[in-house]
Specification:
Blueprint lengths: L1 H14 L7 H17 L4 H29 L1 H15 L6 H12 L3 H12 L8 H27 L4 H17 L13 H10 L1 H14 L2 H11 L6 H14 L7 H7 L25 H30 L1
Length: 318
Amino acid sequence: MTFLSILFALLIEQLKPLRADNPVYAWVKQFAGKIEASFNAGQARQGRLGWFCVILALTVPTALVYWLCVHIGAWAALLWNVLIVYLTLGFRHYSHYFSSIQLALNTGDDATARTLLAEWTKLDTTDMDVSEISRIAVEKALITTHRHVFGVFFWFLMPVGPACAVMYRIAEYLARGWNEPDHMRNEAFGRFAAQAFYWIDWIPARMTAAAFAVVGNFEDAIYAWRNFADRWKNETDGIILSTGGGAMGVLLGTPLETAIAILPADASTIDSTAMESESPPGDVPTPRALQSTVGLVWRALLLWMFLLLLLSAAIWFG
C-alpha cells in the first residue's frame, strides 16, 4: 500500500501540481503564526511548548483518521495515504522557477534568470554572473527536493506513515518560519524548532546523500561528503550539497566572504575555520549543471521507488 500511495500521489502531482500558495498551506502558516503570537515571550521553553502544540494539533488528527480508514477498509486507507502524500510532497511546487531559470540561461537571457532566482530565493542577484546563478539554482534545487520529496518519503515509511509525513513537513516549516524572518531571527523562541528539525532530518538527509552518491559519481560524492561537508555551517545542507556536487562533478559552495553576501545563513554558507587549501572535486557550475541536477534528482527518485517496490514485494510475498 505504501508503494502504491507514493506512486499515485506522484502521478497526480505530475498531472495537477499543488501550488505553494494553496489554501491548506496558507491555513497551516496562519495557524503556526497564531501559536507563535500567543506563546512567544522571548524564551526558548515557550518555543518548545508552541512547537509541540502545532505538531500534535496536526499529526494526531491525521493519525486518527488513518486509524479509522484502516478499520473501514484498505481502499479507504489507500485514499487517505494518497491525499496526505499529495499534500506533503512538493516535487513541483517550485520546479517552474528552476525550469524557467534553466531556459533563460540556455537562451542567454541572464537578466530574466537573475529576476527568477531573486523571486525564488529572496536574494539580491543584481551582480551575479552566470556561474553564480547556476550554482545557487542547483543548491536551492537539491535542498528543496530533499525537504519536499525524499524527507517526506522516509517518514511516510514509518509506522502511521501519514502522520509522520505531516510531522516532517510541519517541523521543516517551523524550523524556517520561526527562525528565518527578520523579526524572528536569532530569537530564543525558534531555537527548539531548529534543533528538533535537525534531529528529525538527521537520517533522511544522509539517505538522500547516499542516493545521490549511488546514482551519480560514487567515488567523488563520498570523497566530498567525508572531506568537505563540514565546511557548511548547516551540517545537513553541507552533506546534501557536497555529496550532490561530487555526484554531478559540480563545485558547489563559495568562500565565506562571498557566501555572506549572497547566501542565507542556513544554506550553503561555508565556515572559514574549516577552509582548507584543497578544493572539493568538480567544475565551476555552468547552465549545463542545471540539467545534471534534473537527471540526478530523477535517478535518485527512481532508486527510492525501486527499493520501495522491492520492500513491498517482500512484504506481500514473504
